[in-house]
Amino acid sequence: MTADQADEVMAEYLLKGGKMLAKSCKVCGYPLFEYKGETQCVVCPLAASEEPLPEPEPPAPAPETGQPPAPAAREPQGEAAVEIERTIVHLCERIRGEQRPDECLTLMKAVERGARALARLGQR
Predict the structure, then answer these.
(1) Where are the transmembrane segments (predicted)?
(2) Which end is more exposed in the chain, N or C (fewer Cβ atoms within 10 Å of the end residue's Cβ)?
(3) What is the pTM of this model?
């Protein structure tokens, strides 16, 4: 499944009244959705019917020094991911109340870009 196809699927769920959550799927990295009372990944079921997704990278092994790994290398990505997630949630809230189709489309494109950014951060 291409990123564009995944974005289309997510946009469809938003239009159906699904709520994009500030949590990502541990398998594919795309945002999870709350739809009809269930939290689910809307991308994985479709991707499973096409081709396997690449395996997520395993976490780096801890150094042999007995000290926990330094989180400094991951903090900027973590902070960026949190801000992107917050922005996506805010955009989704705006989409729900938006009456103008052109503005709704603009907001949905921004959500799509945010989802792509989150996926890229999750791959590093």
Answers:
(1) none
(2) C
(3) 0.42
Dmax (CA) for the chain in angstroms is 58
CB 43 within 8 A of CB 26: no
Strands (E) across the chain are located at 19-24, 31-35, 38-40
Q: Is 13 in a helix, a strand, or coil? A: helix
C-alpha distances out from residue 106 to 16, 109, 117, Å:
17, 5, 17
C-alpha closest to that of 14 among 81, 89, 82: 89
Residue position matching structure tokens 């922005």: 87
| Helix (H) or strand (E) run with residue 104 in it | helix 101-123
Q: In tens digits, what is the pLDDT along the chain, a chain of 124 residues?
A: 677 788 888 888 888 888 888 888 888 888 899 988 999 988 888 766 655 444 444 555 555 655 555 544 444 567 777 778 888 888 888 888 888 888 888 888 888 888 887 787 775 5
